[in-house]
Amino acid sequence: MAMARTDDAPSAPRSRDADRSQQAILDAAAAEFAQHGLAGARVDRIAELAGLNKRLIYYYFGSKDDLFLAVLEAAYARIRAAEQALHLEDMPPAQALQRLTEFTWDYYIAHPEFLTFLNSENLHQGRHLAQSRKAQAVNSPLVETLGAILERGRQDGSFRGGIDPVQLYMSIAGMAYFYLSNRFTLSAIFGRDLMTPKARHERLQHISDVVLGYALRN
Predict the structure, then answer these.
(1) Are 49 and 31 contacting, i.e. CB atoms less than 8 angstroms apart?
(2) What is the Cα 212 distance to its own chain's centre?
(3) Tens digits of residue pLDDT in 157-200
Protein backbone atom coordinates (compact mmCIF):
# COMPACT_ATOMS: atom_id res chain seq x y z
CA MET A 1 0.00 0.00 0.00
CA ALA A 2 1.38 3.42 -0.92
CA MET A 3 2.27 5.66 1.98
CA ALA A 4 0.22 8.81 2.40
CA ARG A 5 2.15 11.93 1.47
CA THR A 6 2.40 14.52 4.23
CA ASP A 7 1.55 18.13 3.50
CA ASP A 8 5.04 19.42 4.31
CA ALA A 9 7.04 16.83 2.37
CA PRO A 10 7.77 19.09 -0.66
CA SER A 11 8.60 22.14 1.48
CA ALA A 12 12.38 21.63 1.61
CA PRO A 13 12.87 21.33 -2.18
CA ARG A 14 10.52 24.26 -2.74
CA SER A 15 12.46 26.28 -0.17
CA ARG A 16 15.75 25.49 -1.90
CA ASP A 17 14.27 26.49 -5.26
CA ALA A 18 13.02 29.75 -3.78
CA ASP A 19 16.42 30.47 -2.24
CA ARG A 20 18.14 29.82 -5.57
CA SER A 21 15.68 32.02 -7.42
CA GLN A 22 16.06 34.88 -4.96
CA GLN A 23 19.84 34.65 -5.10
CA ALA A 24 19.78 34.62 -8.90
CA ILE A 25 17.62 37.74 -8.82
CA LEU A 26 19.93 39.47 -6.34
CA ASP A 27 23.01 38.63 -8.42
CA ALA A 28 21.39 39.86 -11.61
CA ALA A 29 20.07 42.98 -9.91
CA ALA A 30 23.51 43.77 -8.47
CA ALA A 31 25.01 43.61 -11.96
CA GLU A 32 22.22 45.77 -13.39
CA PHE A 33 22.39 48.41 -10.65
CA ALA A 34 26.19 48.47 -10.85
CA GLN A 35 26.05 49.23 -14.58
CA HIS A 36 23.02 51.52 -14.77
CA GLY A 37 22.35 52.82 -11.26
CA LEU A 38 18.92 52.69 -9.67
CA ALA A 39 17.31 55.14 -12.08
CA GLY A 40 18.60 53.43 -15.21
CA ALA A 41 18.09 49.83 -14.09
CA ARG A 42 15.31 47.85 -15.76
CA VAL A 43 13.41 44.95 -14.21
CA ASP A 44 13.07 43.30 -17.64
CA ARG A 45 16.86 43.13 -17.97
CA ILE A 46 17.24 41.80 -14.43
CA ALA A 47 14.72 39.04 -15.15
CA GLU A 48 16.45 38.15 -18.41
CA LEU A 49 19.86 38.01 -16.74
CA ALA A 50 18.48 35.90 -13.88
CA GLY A 51 16.72 33.60 -16.34
CA LEU A 52 13.43 34.04 -14.49
CA ASN A 53 10.00 35.49 -15.11
CA LYS A 54 9.93 39.09 -13.92
CA ARG A 55 6.76 38.38 -11.97
CA LEU A 56 8.96 36.42 -9.57
CA ILE A 57 10.96 39.57 -8.90
CA TYR A 58 7.83 41.40 -7.78
CA TYR A 59 6.68 38.33 -5.86
CA TYR A 60 9.89 38.02 -3.86
CA PHE A 61 10.95 41.67 -3.58
CA GLY A 62 7.86 43.80 -4.18
CA SER A 63 9.32 46.57 -6.33
CA LYS A 64 12.51 47.77 -7.99
CA ASP A 65 13.18 50.03 -5.01
CA ASP A 66 12.77 47.15 -2.58
CA LEU A 67 15.09 45.05 -4.72
CA PHE A 68 17.67 47.84 -4.71
CA LEU A 69 17.50 47.95 -0.91
CA ALA A 70 18.04 44.18 -0.78
CA VAL A 71 21.12 44.58 -2.99
CA LEU A 72 22.40 47.38 -0.75
CA GLU A 73 21.86 45.31 2.39
CA ALA A 74 23.68 42.35 0.85
CA ALA A 75 26.57 44.60 -0.21
CA TYR A 76 26.95 46.00 3.30
CA ALA A 77 26.75 42.52 4.77
CA ARG A 78 29.60 41.36 2.52
CA ILE A 79 31.99 44.16 3.39
CA ARG A 80 31.24 43.91 7.10
CA ALA A 81 31.77 40.12 7.01
CA ALA A 82 35.10 40.63 5.24
CA GLU A 83 36.12 43.14 7.92
CA GLN A 84 35.23 40.72 10.69
CA ALA A 85 37.38 38.07 9.01
CA LEU A 86 40.41 40.34 9.54
CA HIS A 87 40.28 39.63 13.30
CA LEU A 88 41.36 43.17 14.09
CA GLU A 89 40.75 42.56 17.77
CA ASP A 90 43.74 40.19 17.80
CA MET A 91 46.18 42.82 16.50
CA PRO A 92 48.00 45.60 18.36
CA PRO A 93 45.96 48.82 18.07
CA ALA A 94 48.18 50.64 15.55
CA GLN A 95 48.48 47.54 13.38
CA ALA A 96 44.71 46.99 13.51
CA LEU A 97 44.01 50.58 12.44
CA GLN A 98 46.53 50.32 9.63
CA ARG A 99 45.01 47.03 8.49
CA LEU A 100 41.48 48.43 8.48
CA THR A 101 42.66 51.40 6.42
CA GLU A 102 44.40 49.15 3.88
CA PHE A 103 41.45 46.79 3.73
CA THR A 104 38.96 49.59 3.06
CA TRP A 105 41.07 50.92 0.18
CA ASP A 106 41.66 47.48 -1.32
CA TYR A 107 38.01 46.49 -0.97
CA TYR A 108 36.77 49.59 -2.77
CA ILE A 109 39.19 48.93 -5.63
CA ALA A 110 38.21 45.25 -5.85
CA HIS A 111 34.48 46.02 -5.63
CA PRO A 112 33.72 49.15 -7.67
CA GLU A 113 30.07 48.13 -7.75
CA PHE A 114 29.87 48.93 -4.03
CA LEU A 115 30.79 52.55 -4.76
CA THR A 116 28.20 52.67 -7.55
CA PHE A 117 25.51 51.46 -5.16
CA LEU A 118 26.50 54.17 -2.67
CA ASN A 119 26.46 56.82 -5.39
CA SER A 120 22.95 55.78 -6.42
CA GLU A 121 21.70 55.74 -2.85
CA ASN A 122 23.13 59.19 -2.16
CA LEU A 123 21.42 60.52 -5.28
CA HIS A 124 18.20 59.32 -3.65
CA GLN A 125 19.15 60.96 -0.34
CA GLY A 126 19.62 57.67 1.48
CA ARG A 127 15.89 56.99 1.57
CA HIS A 128 16.27 53.24 1.10
CA LEU A 129 18.84 52.71 3.85
CA ALA A 130 16.84 54.95 6.18
CA GLN A 131 14.14 52.28 6.12
CA SER A 132 16.53 49.41 6.78
CA ARG A 133 17.05 48.09 10.28
CA LYS A 134 19.16 45.33 8.79
CA ALA A 135 21.71 47.78 7.35
CA GLN A 136 21.99 49.61 10.64
CA ALA A 137 22.41 46.37 12.57
CA VAL A 138 25.07 44.97 10.25
CA ASN A 139 27.13 48.16 10.50
CA SER A 140 27.08 48.42 14.30
CA PRO A 141 29.79 45.77 14.91
CA LEU A 142 32.29 47.79 12.86
CA VAL A 143 31.81 50.84 15.07
CA GLU A 144 32.11 48.67 18.17
CA THR A 145 35.27 47.00 16.88
CA LEU A 146 36.90 50.28 15.93
CA GLY A 147 35.87 51.79 19.24
CA ALA A 148 37.50 48.88 21.07
CA ILE A 149 40.70 49.28 19.03
CA LEU A 150 40.85 52.96 19.91
CA GLU A 151 40.24 52.26 23.58
CA ARG A 152 42.97 49.61 23.68
CA GLY A 153 45.31 52.11 22.07
CA ARG A 154 44.36 54.77 24.59
CA GLN A 155 44.97 52.40 27.46
CA ASP A 156 48.39 51.27 26.26
CA GLY A 157 49.41 54.84 25.49
CA SER A 158 49.76 54.47 21.72
CA PHE A 159 46.60 56.44 20.83
CA ARG A 160 45.39 59.74 22.13
CA GLY A 161 42.00 59.84 23.80
CA GLY A 162 38.72 61.35 22.69
CA ILE A 163 38.58 59.86 19.19
CA ASP A 164 35.07 59.20 17.87
CA PRO A 165 35.13 55.85 16.01
CA VAL A 166 32.33 56.94 13.66
CA GLN A 167 34.17 60.13 12.70
CA LEU A 168 37.41 58.22 12.20
CA TYR A 169 35.81 55.55 10.02
CA MET A 170 34.11 58.21 7.91
CA SER A 171 37.54 59.75 7.35
CA ILE A 172 39.07 56.40 6.37
CA ALA A 173 36.23 55.56 4.01
CA GLY A 174 35.86 59.11 2.74
CA MET A 175 39.49 59.56 1.71
CA ALA A 176 39.30 56.34 -0.29
CA TYR A 177 35.79 56.88 -1.63
CA PHE A 178 36.31 60.43 -2.88
CA TYR A 179 39.51 59.55 -4.72
CA LEU A 180 38.08 56.48 -6.43
CA SER A 181 34.61 57.89 -7.19
CA ASN A 182 36.12 61.04 -8.71
CA ARG A 183 39.17 59.51 -10.35
CA PHE A 184 38.14 60.51 -13.87
CA THR A 185 37.53 64.18 -13.11
CA LEU A 186 40.54 64.40 -10.82
CA SER A 187 42.77 62.77 -13.44
CA ALA A 188 41.56 65.28 -16.03
CA ILE A 189 41.98 68.27 -13.72
CA PHE A 190 45.45 67.39 -12.46
CA GLY A 191 46.72 65.86 -15.68
CA ARG A 192 47.81 62.55 -14.22
CA ASP A 193 46.51 58.98 -14.26
CA LEU A 194 45.36 58.39 -10.70
CA MET A 195 44.87 54.65 -11.18
CA THR A 196 48.39 53.55 -12.05
CA PRO A 197 49.93 51.15 -9.49
CA LYS A 198 52.28 53.92 -8.36
CA ALA A 199 49.45 56.43 -7.92
CA ARG A 200 47.31 53.94 -6.00
CA HIS A 201 50.24 53.08 -3.72
CA GLU A 202 50.92 56.75 -3.03
CA ARG A 203 47.27 57.38 -2.23
CA LEU A 204 47.06 54.47 0.21
CA GLN A 205 50.25 55.62 1.89
CA HIS A 206 48.81 59.13 2.23
CA ILE A 207 45.55 57.85 3.74
CA SER A 208 47.45 55.64 6.19
CA ASP A 209 49.73 58.51 7.21
CA VAL A 210 46.76 60.81 7.81
CA VAL A 211 44.79 58.25 9.81
CA LEU A 212 47.66 57.07 11.98
CA GLY A 213 49.03 60.58 12.33
CA TYR A 214 45.67 61.61 13.77
CA ALA A 215 45.30 58.65 16.11
CA LEU A 216 48.81 58.13 17.42
CA ARG A 217 49.94 59.98 20.50
CA ASN A 218 52.78 62.37 19.70
Answers:
(1) yes
(2) 23
(3) 999 999 999 999 999 999 999 999 999 999 999 999 999 999 99
Separation of alpha carbons 199 and 63, rounded Å: 41
Overall size of the chain counted in residues = 218
Task: Check if the beta carbon of residue 35 is closer than 8 Å to that of residue 45.
Answer: no
pLDDT confidence of 14, banded at 50, 70, 90? low
Q: Rounded distance, CA 76 to CA 139, Å? A: 8
In this predicted structure, the answer to whether residue 46 has a pLDDT above a threshold of 50 is yes
Contact 129, 69 (CB under 8 A): yes
Res 11 pLDDT > 90:
no
Q: Give me the domains of the chain, ranges plus CATH numbers.
A: 15-62 (1.10.10.60), 73-215 (1.10.357.10)
105, burial (CB in 10 Å: exposed 0-12, middle 13-18, buried 19+): buried
Q: For helices 11-40 and 112-123, give the axis angle rounded to 10 degrees.
A: 70
Which three-class secondary structure string do you get for 94-122? HHHHHHHHHHHHHHHHHCHHHHHHHHHHH
